[in-house]
Design brief:
309 residues, alpha/beta, Arc Repressor Mutant, subunit A, D-Maltodextrin-Binding Protein, domain 2, seven-stranded mixed beta sheet, two-stranded antiparallel sheet, 10 helices, 11 strands, globular, binds 2-phosphoglycolic acid
């Protein structure tokens, strides 16, 4: 058993999670033959098959499941070891793995410069994915801190609000409804609409809002990028609902405008979250404290600086 390597366990974990050798190889940036070779060696070490294939699906065998549970315990122990060593060193150093939803990416990076100036010895990594992706990583306890607008209801988490997240209706500046006040929600039904992809937190909020108001909109396209949505709005493809934080530049330079529709802005919040019971590293705790204490002020100052005086 002691011949098994951490690398092999990491590969097994990725295959189990994706149900695919190919996707595990992509995630780990390995070639497929390397992945197969490592699993072959691990299988020989264990002395029993670890995966079985039924039709096109790959499943862990009972032995595979045992190896996976042992691997989870081992990675947790390594994470604890890392924290313990950082603490022994008594230094705020190490690496922080942050995750932000596709929309939270408009404010989380704004915090990094100030933080880095205060703690140049801490290495930062920021992974961006949509809200569904954020929650999947959180459920697997893959990272240190998660920034999102929709905390999960089915997981035990610690939750700290960072700032407000107003969702607004966005149109090209020359749209006939631009500048009008109290536009009825019903009027949206006559407009072509651009939606984010399934799995987006923003989309879920918009769908719920429209359903509550019994308005069915004509969705002309789904796009998985806020940047692409803004360009599509500017190009006259339709309207959309976006976080106001994603619009600073385009509303300032007059490319896009926010429509004054009844019920908007939909007031949401941005949170930083992590699983209950997670032992945060000194570095992650430092970033958490910094975000809570200074996040709102830094982000608002950033937006204010964009407004010409
Ligand atoms: P989204 O994120 O980019 O997936 O829409 C919004 C959120 O975190 O609520």
């Amino acid at each position: 058993m002691r011949q098994a390597t951490l690398h092999q366990l990491q590969i097994l974990e990725a295959i189990a999670r994706h149900g695919s050798f190919t996707r595990a190889a992509e995630e780990l940036e390995l070639t497929q033959p390397t992945v197969s070779q490592q699993i072959k060696r691990l299988t020989e070490t264990i002395g029993m098959p670890l995966f079985e294939q039924l039709g096109k699906q790959i499943y862990l065998t009972a032995a595979g499941n045992q190896v996976l549970s042992a691997s989870a315990v081992i990675s947790e122990k390594f994470a604890e070891l890392e924290i313990a060593i950082d603490e022994l060193k008594g230094l705020k150093q190490g690496k922080i793995n942050l995750v932000a939803s596709t929309t939270a990416k408009y404010f989380v990076p704004r915090l990094l410069g100030t933080f880095r100036r205060k703690h140049p010895e801490i290495e930062l990594a920021l992974h961006i994915t949509n809200q569904e992706g954020v929650l999947a990583r959180l459920a697997r306890n893959q990272d240190d801190l998660y920034f999102t607008g929709r905390p999960p209801s089915d997981l035990d988490i610690e939750l700290r609000p960072i700032l407000d997240n107003p969702l607004v209706v966005v149109a090209p500046s020359n749209h006939p409804l631009a500048g009008k006040t109290n536009i009825a929600v019903k009027e949206l039904a006559t407009e072509p609409f651009i939606f984010r992809e399934a799995g987006s937190g923003t989309r879920l909020v918009v769908e719920n809002f429209l359903a509550e108001n019994r308005v069915a909109v004509d969705v002309v396209i789904e796009l998985s990028s806020n940047e692409a949505i803004k360009q599509a709005i500017a190009g006259g493809l339709g309207l959309s609902v976006l976080s106001q934080h994603s619009l600073d530049l385009e509303t300032q330079n007059g490319l896009l405008t926010i429509l004054n529709v009844e019920g908007f802005p939909i007031q949401r919040h941005w949170y930083v979250i992590y699983p209950t019971g997670k032992q945060l590293s000194v570095a992650a705790q430092t970033f958490l404290d910094f975000s809570i204490a200074q996040g709102k002020q830094i982000i608002e100052q950033f937006s204010a600086d964009l407004i010409p005086r």
